[in-house]
Automatic annotation (TrEMBL):
PANTHER family: BRANCHED-CHAIN AMINO ACID PERMEASE BRNQ (PTHR30588:SF0), BRANCHED-CHAIN AMINO ACID TRANSPORT SYSTEM 2 CARRIER PROTEIN (PTHR30588). The keyword Magnesium does not apply. It is a multi-pass membrane protein. The keyword Translocase does not apply. This is Branched-chain amino acid transport system carrier protein.
C-alpha cells in the first residue's frame, strides 16, 4: 500500500477494533473470574477457574471447544513471535534463521512445561521491570518531532524508568528486604508506579537540556 494516509487510517481502524475487542474479552474474563471463583476455591490461576466455569456450564464438549480455541490462539501467537524473534536476532547473532527458530522452539517447549502458575510467578518480576521503559518509549515516540535530539531525551527517561522498574520488580519477586528503606516510601510506590515521578522529572530535565542545546546550536550558526 503506497498511500500513507490510507495506510494510517486502516491501521487506526484495525487498532481500534482490536482494542475494543480485547477490552470486551478481558472485561468478560474479569466478570467471570470474580463470580465463578467459588467453583474452584483452591484455584491457583485464572485458567483453572475458566475451565471450571466452561465445564460446569457447557460440559465436556465445552471444555473441548475451549481447549481448541486456546490451542489455536496460542499457536498463532507462538508462530508469530518465534518467526519475528528469529528474523530479528538472525541479523545480530551468528546463527541462521532456521537455527534460531529451532532454538526458540526448544526453549519454549521447555519453559511451557513449568506450568502456568510457575510461569506467572517468574514473569511478573520481569514484566514489572520492562513495562516502565516500554510505556515511556511508546508515549515519547509521539513526541519525536518536538526535540532537537530525540535520543538524548528519550534514552535518559527510559533508563530512569528501567532503574525504578527494577526496584518494583525486586519487590514483586519477594526480595523487598534487600532494598533500601527509602525505596518503599517513594511516591506512588503503593500503586506500583514508583517509576513515574522520577521519569517525569528526568523528562523535564532532558527537555530543558535539549532546548538549551538547540539554542546554542542556533546561536553558533
Amino acid at each position: 500500500m503506497k498511500d500513507n494516509g490510507l495506510l494510517t487510517r486502516y491501521t487506526i481502524f484495525a487498532g481500534l477494533i482490536a482494542g475494543v475487542g480485547l477490552t470486551l474479552v478481558y472485561l468478560s474474563l474479569f466478570k467471570l473470574g470474580s463470580g465463578s471463583g467459588v467453583l474452584v476455591p483452591e484455584a491457583t490461576n485464572g485458567a483453572v477457574i475458566l475451565h471450571a466455569y466452561v465445564q460446569n456450564t457447557f460440559g465436556g464438549l465445552g471444555s473441548f471447544f475451549l481447549a481448541a480455541l486456546i490451542f489455536i490462539a496460542c499457536m498463532v501467537t507462538a508462530v508469530g513471535l518465534t518467526c519475528a524473534c528469529a528474523e530479528f536476532f538472525a541479523q545480530y547473532l551468528p546463527f541462521s534463521y532456521k537455527t534460531l527458530v529451532f532454538i526458540l522452539g526448544l526453549f519454549s517447549m521447555f519453559v511451557s512445561n513449568l506450568g502456568l502458575s510457575h510461569l506467572i510467578h517468574l514473569s511478573i518480576p520481569v514484566l514489572t521491570a520492562i513495562y516502565p521503559p516500554c510505556i515511556v518509549l511508546v508515549v515519547l515516540s509521539f513526541t519525536m518531532r518536538m526535540w532537537n535530539s530525540a535520543p538524548k531525551v528519550i534514552a535518559p527517561v527510559m533508563l530512569v524508568s528501567l532503574l525504578f522498574g527494577i526496584l518494583d520488580a525486586v519487590k514483586a519477586a519477594g526480595f523487598e528486604n534487600l532494598l533500601p528503606a527509602w525505596s518503599t516510601h517513594l511516591p506512588l510506590a503503593g500503586q506500583g508506579l514508583a517509576w513515574l515521578p522520577p521519569s517525569v522529572l528526568m523528562l523535564v530535565l532532558a527537555a530543558i537540556y535539549d532546548r538549551v542545546c538547540s539554542r546554542s546550536e542556533a546561536t553558533a550558526h
